[in-house]
Amino acid sequence: MALFLVQHGISASKDADPEKGLSDLGFEETKKIAPVAKGYGIPVVKIVHSGKKRAEQTAGIYHKALGLENSMEAISGINPLDDVRAFADRIYPGSNWMVVGHMPFMEKLVSYLTTGSEEILVYKFQNSGIVCLDTREGEGREPDWFIKWTLNPNIS
Fold this sequence. Notes:
21% strand, 4 helices, alpha/beta, single chain, Rossmann fold
């Protein structure tokens, strides 16, 4: 059981797209890495996103590549400056959700879940990449989150 966190693909400038959807490179990189995720058989059950155009487009590419039957969903609480603690309280470790969101929220969420502090940088996200978090649950205690693996379109 895991949580798959994705930073949206590279967005276009506001001049090119006032809604800041994906740039050509953003589409290209997401379309490059999503089939790799499919090839590894990652067990995503549902994809949720922030509702912003770039996050929805990124989620759509993953949704299609992973061949999911259920629909994607826009959810609140995962925008760039939203409270990671509030969202962390809503996470069910066994959900196998893919969450497509934004910086700095995503990095702060990983930091908070793995260290208890959103201020400690634990992982530097890459656009379109996936960070898989998993838990080690014990009886009568909160789950211990850890980074299980990452998958990125570039190794630099």
